[in-house]
Amino acid sequence: GNLADTVTKQGKYAEAETLFAQVLEISRRVMGPEHPRRFDFLSDAGAMYQRQEKFAQAEASIAEALAGRRRTLGSDHPETMQGAADLALALLSQRKFVESERAPRTRGTRLQSEEEPG
């Protein structure tokens, strides 16, 4: 992950994409697909795609990381909340204004409905 981040900051995006693909595959195989560190790598890959203005790929990586964090860490975890904000920014970059407005609010909306008596 760190080497891929460094290469991204140097603007060597093709190399960074290759490194992130390797890191994601190895982390999935070694740590498992639901490991929190793997979601960090996905978020970092999303940031790398955003720097390249590859917004659809950024959205996909960030959304996958967010979904995994919600499953494993819960909606109230700070990393999950940061992931929701990251997804909102990725959506804004694509001019998906309605979706971006909903992204961070999904947590609150779901919790509110869970708290209501059934």
Individual helix count: 7
- Output the structural class: mainly alpha
* Beta-strand percent range: under 5%
Helix percentage range? over 70%
Nearest-angstrom radius of gyration? 15 Å
The total beta strand count reads 0
Outline the secondary-structure elements:
Elements: H1 2-9, H2 13-31, H3 36-51, H4 55-72, H5 78-93, H6 97-102, H7 105-115
Written account of the structure:
It is a single chain. Helix 4 (55-72) packs antiparallel against helix 5 (78-93). The protein is mainly α. The chain contains seven helices and no strands.
Task: Give the tags.
118 residues, mainly alpha, 7 helices, 80% helix, flat
What is shown here, in short?
This protein has 118 residues and is an all-alpha fold. It is built from 7 helices and no strands.
